[in-house]
Amino acid sequence: QRTVVLKKQAEVNGKPMKFLNDIDIVNQDVLIFTDSSTKWDRRHLMNILLEGIPNGRVLRLTRSTGKIDVIMDKLYFPNGIQLFPDKQSFLVSETGLARIKRYWIAGPRLGETEIFIDNLPGLPDNIRPGSNGTFWIGLATVRHSDRFSLLDYLADKPFIRKCILQLVPERQWEWLQSMFAAKHALILQLSEEGQIIASAHDPTGQVIKEVSQVTEANGHLYLGSYRAPFIARLRKDLIVY
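Structure tokens predicted for Strictosidine synthase conserved region domain-containing protein (241 residues):
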């Protein structure tokens, strides 16, 4: 049995939901989820990064009423979303700026936002809970301080980005970006204070690269990639703290 909780054609505050991405469950009645862009859909995700416009948002659906609220907006490619264990706040990956934000939906800090961690060594994708109140982050693209990054180079050059967006076919732009992207997989474990406490690497991308999610279960880490038709598994006890 299936129940439709959200209609594809629905608009929120006069803007369409173009790229619904990740979701978490507050309770049986309330869902929160990311809408990565009000302009581009999933098939054009590279355009979101290239255009660099804050038109992403976090939405909240109340199933009993069918009402959809915008609880965060003006985000640069919001991606993964994950509630804290007490469900008073959540984390959201702002992939376009290589950072993660925290937003409070309950408690004494209701409505407040803070940067949980900034200037990550890659573009964060999904966020999933780890043991002891930690969080696992998959990095869709890895950034190196000593290597050229096309996205970082273009970050403060809006005119060039606009020209590429208008003149270069998306598949060619994606190929160009892949030529400069590091063949390197990286996952991070963050503390509940937003500090990196562990990481694991595949420095040559031989097994997996462009990690989109890390799920911890039964002493293992399960890694998914939006580029790979498989799930990789890593023994958690191999990670050195």
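The helical segments are 45-51, 150-154, 158-167, 170-180.
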